[in-house]
Fold these 3 entries.
Entry 1:
Amino acid sequence: MNVARIILGVLLVSLPAVGAVHGEEDQPAEASWQAPEPSAVRELAMRWLAEQKADAAVVEKAKTLWPPEAESAEATQLLARLGVTFALVDPRARALVERCARPSGRPDREATAWLLDETVPPVTPNLRLLYARWLLHGELFDEAHEYLAGLATEDVVDPASLLFCQGVVAHQLLHREEGLKALDTLLARSDKAPRRYLALARLMREELDGLKEDSLDHIARRMGDIRRRLDLGRAGPKVRKIEDGVIESLDKLIKKLEEQQKKSQCAGSNSIQSSSPAPDSRILGGRGPGEVTQKKLGSKSGWGDLPPKQREAALQQIGREFPSHYRDVIEQYFRKLATEEEQER
């Protein structure tokens, strides 16, 4: 299952949630966060306009964004309306909201750096969340992580979206502990979070909880992250570092499998015993321990340059020990790297 694609589909949903799940297994005695009432969000927006000394025409326009029916709106809608309200007065907020209204695009670090300024008004965390959601649509997880870092549920009007986005980023960047913390906090209020968030939060949590360092699943996930970065046109030092880490992990995994195979062969050889000396003319049975050729998956000085014969031997070794789809992932990965290296020459 491609959880990442499903997650992005959920983030693109603009319709109200179909409901909330009341699961006692996710509900602790004391929940750690609470979504604000729509009336409180409206009051926040109007108070901020007064502090900005907005003229009467702007205030009247803002009031149309908060009609009586807004009292029943879900938090994601309140966040969007709050962003539009800020845009009525603040040119930077207006540019940000206009950017987030586009389906995709490249991030502009210079134009959005003000969001990280500690001296900006307290409404800024909501704009950071709004922008981070947009970044996630383009699979820009590193950038989204920067704008979500340090935000707490009490800082925003949509704490469920904050926790879900933080969980998505951690899940995609393989930040296990950070992701488990965000997802557990989200699941703690299953009565307040949208059903679409809860279903995927459980899946992401299960994947992160079972993720082991240097396991084949961990390696495959890091390969997928490298492919994503390369698709975004990024091939700098950070990507190189991840690539080197993948190679080292594959080396460790192959070496471990070979040692296990060698021990198995030795155990089979030692189990063959004879009660009397063998006649000179008799051919003895059994198998010797043999020698296993060490396989090297590339090197730090030549990424992806594993000779085809050795590469196939490594893939066969992995195919014997693990499900076939892991072999497919690694094989596609090497093929993609070989193509990119050929284009660079």
Note: The chain is about 60% helix and 0% strand.
Entry 2:
Amino acid sequence: MNGDEIKPASSMEEIQLERAKWSGRRKMAWVSLISMVLLTIILLFAPISETRLSTLQEPLIWSYFCFTGVIAAYMGSTVIPNLRKST
């Protein structure tokens, strides 16, 4: 064998790579969920003026939208492989 050949990944390496991918996805979903909860608590209980809230209204809406998108993408990606197996 010369140094230019690429060896195929063993099944154990593939499993480890897949676990690492899912671990990263799971962490992103958890961080998004915790961020949504903390942001909501801050908005409900912190003494924030009405003018500041009205100024921050659109960025807050977009941040909730993005957090929800990350969580929905993770949940969808975990369900789709199970749907393929059942059909």
Note: The two ends are 43 Å apart (CA to CA).
Entry 3:
Amino acid sequence: MAVGLAAIGVAILTLAYGAPPHIALALAASFGTYGLVKKTAPLPPLEGLTLETVLLGLPAAAYLVAADRAGTGVFVHGATATSLFLIGGGLVTIVPLLLFASAVRLVPLSTMGLLQFISPTIQLVLALALYHEPFGRSRVAGFAAVWLALVVFAFDEVRSAPARALEREPAGTRV
């Protein structure tokens, strides 16, 4: 039921915009995949993040060197403050990534999925309250369907949690 409601919400927003929300769907798919990989990876959080950094850092460094040699690079040239902010931004993101990698191993993926709606909710509230973003009927209907799907999903998770806990309990420990 939750998946159907979410699909209805996405369909409403797609019809209102005249095109599917490609960016939102790509973000959801990519971050969902990232969470699944982090949960199932056999590496501890710090080692996993180190591997990610090496795998993604090498192509990024190669691109920066190539851009510099082609004369189109701006990193570490005229805009020193910008370069320092970019480096600092990378360093600042290490803490949330490590915390996420640690948490995702301890919490069910369904719970992580629900927690991923905190940031968009804050952004929506800010957009409406602070920036007076227009929020017409189609957006209200689409978002209401998605949020109703989340409520249905969360209700089912809470309702079935005791049964899942019993399934995980080792045999012979029940009283």
Note: The first helix runs from residue 2 to 17.
